[in-house]
Design a protein that fits this description.
This protein is an all-alpha fold and 201 residues long. It has one domain. Helices cover 77% and strands 0% of the residues. The protein contains eight helices and no strands. Helix 2 packs antiparallel against helix 3, helix 3 packs across helix 4 and helix 3 runs antiparallel to helix 5. The radius of gyration is 17 Å and the shape is globular. The C terminus is likely disordered. Keywords: Membrane, Transmembrane, Transmembrane helix.
Length: 201
Amino acid sequence: MTFRRGALGSPETALFLGPLLFGVYGVIRLLDGIDGVHGPGLAWTTGHLCFLAGLPLYVRGFGLMRDLAGRRDRWAGAALVTSVAGAFAFAVQFGVDVVCGLLANDHARMSELSDHFGSLPGAQIVFYIAGPILFSLGQVALAARLYRWRALPLWAPCVLFASVLLPFADKDLIPLAAALMLLGYSPLRRSSASRTAFTRA
């Protein structure tokens, strides 16, 4: 399966728009937390919707990276599955956050509703712990495989690795993490990348 231009635009563009929307979410989150409280409200909902909109773009970009590595690269295939599973978990997590924000009148009620979902068997581990880790590890592994095939310079997976660590350290660093992602993916977004995509069967 190859990922070419479609409803979400080219995969190269998706690798720009996905991190960009992630950065927008991070900036809105910072503004929303100026008063010391995150959500509910317009900023909470808008920021989360931005990140949700970016997830299918990430997946499309991950598909391009898998194509560049070649179908015989089983490690790249496993990394794609890992990153997509993480994206799905993120979608559920952020979807729940949006719904809770819309249903709640204040932060305490929103947290209560969110805790109800998080208390479901396995929800905390799958959607709040494993999901973000899989999403992060998958994309770094894809970048590492592309370095293996000389489709990316060494600095690119290193930058992406740093970018995925930042939000785990402090969510306020999400805008910086997004900027690093844009930098790390920049070699794949160049027009020459799409023209020289590998066709290893």
